[in-house]
Fold this sequence. Notes:
- There is one protein chain.
- The chain is mainly β.
- It has a single domain (3-78), classed as Double Stranded RNA Binding Domain (2-Layer Sandwich).
- It has one helix and six strands.
Amino acid sequence: MVARIYRPAKTAMQSGKAKTQRWVLDFEPEVAKAVEPLMGYTSSSDMKQQVRLYFDTQEEAVAYARRHNIPHRVEKPRNRVVRGAAYADNFRFNRVAPWTH
């Protein structure tokens, strides 16, 4: 029952940074998921996969895990890399990737 503490990354479908400022504590799966043969549903008997706790800071999440004797692992957040690009770069003569249609 190892808990993972991390700050979620921005998804590709978002333009803003909503839901990326809080820290999340969730549990890693203990039991593998199984496919039900008749209907094809994926299920698991591990109820801890349904628990997801949110904290404002990393210290609060670590303190919670220590207070409840939960073994945990902290993943450091990665910095966002913004690459500048212009529409005119699509028509440059020295493109990195060749122009294809």
